[in-house]
């Protein structure tokens, strides 16, 4: 039982595996901050109408956050690796911790932009004030004129208020902005604690040494760059050959002609090879030697996915 728990905890090495992830998340957050500022200046206009303020204020926070969340999932390669894995191999090779952390990785990275959007919206306070101004009880305001009803508070986010209500408007807006910013700071604190705990679990539970993790991250980055670059050249040369066969000639630049002459392409890789290097990857060791990716595993001719006598499942990683 203890061994099983220890193995499951090792899956936490998925999180923050690479410094590139942290840099990317930082850039996403900065981009979201800029977008939110532009949205607040250009697109946000509180209707200042009962029953509309609440919907509009929540939509201003929630709808962009939802859109950013879905975009984050769509742009994450892990998502499509998971789809390919389920389509080609099913879920028979997924353990519960691996499945949990895979979804955690996808959702965690996708949540960077929407959380940033929500935090900035709360710290600015306009959407929160717009949404909740009409729900402030007039009885909570000292000496609030009795002739005005609760619906009057819905226009407080706007500039047009009776002169005798200016003081109450400032008080309501100050109180709501305080609540909004407090929620924003609390959200920042919760996220910071979760990130800290994830980092601690990652360092405590990772089955690999720091140097090997760093090497693994460098290998994955270099493999992805070289694969993408080589695939681009290969596809260009293959396309040039097909175009030449159709037209009898192909219009190539000098650099493209050198590529065609230097790297002759006679065919394409069969589908089984593409399927073998596509999908979710589980870090494995074959006879004590690490296999850092599906491509590495394919190149070494290792068969199977689950742990066996010659290969031990050590840590989960979607690549």
SS elements, strand count: 3
CA distance, first residue to last residue: 29 Å
**Radius of gyration in whole Å, from Cα?**
28 Å
What is the N-to-C succession of helices and strands?
HHHHHHHHHHHEEHE
Strand content: 5-15%
Please count the helical segments.
12
Calculate the mean pLDDT score and round it: 77
- The helix content is 55-70%
Tell me the strand order in the biggest sheet. 2-1-3
**Structural class, from helix and strand content?**
mainly alpha
Main sheet makeup:
3 strands, antiparallel
Keywords:
about 325 residues; mainly alpha; three-stranded antiparallel β-sheet; 12 helices
Q: Could you explain how this protein is built, in words?
A:
The protein has 319 residues and is mainly α. 63% of the residues lie in helices and 5% in strands. It has a 3-stranded antiparallel β-sheet with strand order 2-1-3. It is elongated and about 85 Å long.
